[in-house]
Amino acid sequence: MENVLIVDGYSSARFYPKILKKLGYAPHHLMSGMELEDNYRTTFNLHLFDENEYEKNISGNYRSVEELAEELAPYHFSAVLPGCEGSVLFANALAKQMELPYNEGAITGVLRNKYDMQQALAKANLKHIRSLKTADIEELLAWKKEQNLEKIVIKPLADSASNSVFICEDEDYIRKVFSDVLFSKDECGKVNQELICQEFIDGDEYVVNHVSKNGKHVLGDIERYSKVISADGHPLYDSEELLNPLSPEYENIVVYVQKALDALNLTVGPSHAEVKLTKEGPVLIEVGARLVGGIPEDPQLFQFFAPFIELAAKAYLNPSKSLLEEPYTPIHLPGMTGLLKFLLAYEDKKLESVPAKEILASLPTAKVVDVDKTMKLLHIEETRGLETTTGKVFLIGDKNDVMRDYRAVCYLEREKPYLLYRASEDPQPTSDDLQLLEEMKRGEFVSS
Q: How far is residue 210 CA from its own chain's centroid?
């Protein structure tokens, strides 16, 4: 049985070992050292990691790839798989050192550094975002004026999700955000020595997931993001709708993303691209050379994602075999709408109980409600990124029914959060509150 190494198998990569064992491989795990960072542990849900799924769990403890490659040589690994975003560069560098399949774009840094990513797109004559990399606020303000930009985005050069991403307009706020984010730590514990500042791109935002091998790209799925802007200009993930990737209306997005993958030298494994569709066409926000996060545990939902994860694993195995030989249908829900709602909090609260689990599960289209972390901590804080969402609910069914239940969740979040998350100082639910919950349960909620 051949051995396969997964580096930081957290987030959705926690499903790799089960898939690999099914394929006849022995999965091993390497902890790079980033699991020691508190932010990293929270962002990538390390509490879901189960080392019993692996033949062996190895501590990398921030050692160099040269040291690790020598230590790991006796295992004769067939492949090295990056687990989550923070491990992309390290895993690919280790794979190169061990003479196994890897992405050149990870070695050069364009698959993590968001400024270099945009420059690579420009070099390939692909639509890209005007960007500036700087640690000087005056340089930023001069660049904004020179480019004649009303609104800009400020964010770290290499971070995950929407952490420390701010949409800014007036000078005072730009100065404040720049000061707050510069020299802060990202989700992997690294100090932001410089920031990337970009023109604000308007348009619907899509997620396009592929699996690549030998430079060929197989489409996995397409999702449409919905975001809301917090009071301080922070974009928050609100929902994610699974679309039909076979629809011709998305063809131009897929073609553009595949050209972008080529420009970024992403030749092997899964990729998670975030794209905005503007009036002039699609433009890449960023891409990660790893599995999409947030894949659910629920067996009913997991069946839709399992073939994609299996295809991603196979991309690293048996280099001579083409992915196009593998029978695969892109992920979609024929005749149904699938929507993932991220649960948002608009204030900090110490909790006594979390009724959200039962209340949201009673919605007619709710398939999975995950508020386990909130139930364990009995504390919520104002949502500023994916790591501070209070949970998520998966809705599946007829589009009208799904959207009705989605609006019900949004209403509870904003207007009656005390029904979802109970603190000692909260008012007791009124008879009107209880009637509202019954209406939601019967699928009779009407938004005002």
A: 14
pLDDT digits over 357-394, tens only?
A: 999 999 999 999 999 889 999 999 999 877 789 999 99
d(CA 102, CA 298): 31
User: How many angstroms separate the CA atoms of 129 and 141, rounded?
Assistant: 17
Task: Say if residues 179 and 238 touch (Cβ distance below 8 Å).
Answer: no
Structure tokens at 356: 């959200």
- What is the Cα–Cα distance from 216 to 265, expressed in whole angstroms? 11
Q: How far apart are CA 155 and CA 166, in angstroms?
A: 6
Place of tokens 């000061």: 179
Residue type, 140: L
Three-state DSSP class for residue 109: coil
Nearest to 12 by CA among 35, 52, 43: 43
Q: Can you give 253-274 as a three-state secondary structure string?
A: HHHHHHHHHHHCCCCCEEEEEE
Q: Give the Cα separation of 308 and 155 in Å (integer).
A: 30
